[in-house]
Amino acid sequence: MRRYAGGFERLCERVDFSYDTNPYDGGYTAHGWGRRTAARWGGAGCVGGITWYEMYSYTQSGRMTKRRLRLELSPFVIRDLDTTASYDTQGRLTTAAYPLTGEQHTYEFDTMGRPQKLRDQSWTYLVWDTAYGAADQMLTLATPQWTETRQYNARLQLTRIQQGSAFHLEYRYAASGNNGRVTQQKDWVSVEEINYSYDTRRRLTMTAMAAQVHGGEHEISWPTRPATW
Fold first, then answer.
1. What is the Cα–Cα distance from 77 to 79, expressed in whole angstroms?
2. CA-closest candidate to residue 143, choices 165, 119, 169, 123
3. Where are the chain's structural domains?
4. What is the mean pLDDT of the chain?
């Protein structure tokens, strides 16, 4: 991927992508055929003189199992940050391990195959008691700090998220049209209300804050482009 300014390529913004095989560390990538195996950007003449790499490895079915970020300052100064992931026989993510801290998260699922619990490598649960509605919409989940509840309207559009008394947002939609666009958001903790407006192309054009807080409007303009069809 290359970017140009004034007819000249901006070399430090170039990103080179590799597919099928990994030209930087051939032993790192498994099952790379037909998939992206690496990316490279930066270089000696760029910020910090650092060359950056990303490398990927997959299962046979195409799930990413390893991802590496490499910093190369010279052939003798190379640092790698690695993440790994594993999956069950149904292709669901079951574990994810992160660099630096060595933290590993394990996901557990309910009988319907939906995420229900999340724990770390010491078997401390970070999320539990996740419950769903008949349409698989999330209703509740618990963490060590709070319990979150969610509400929906008859169209299954999210209308409310609440975490005890510390966080409480309400989303309001147009009474007609069924277009899924939020027309107003209310924060019941700060009593702040924000109104949203859209143009005929369904793009957000204005946000207006209710006057009882501190008022103010923000208008968003979009460039006019000729039709291409």
1. 7
2. 119
3. 1-101, 145-229
4. 90
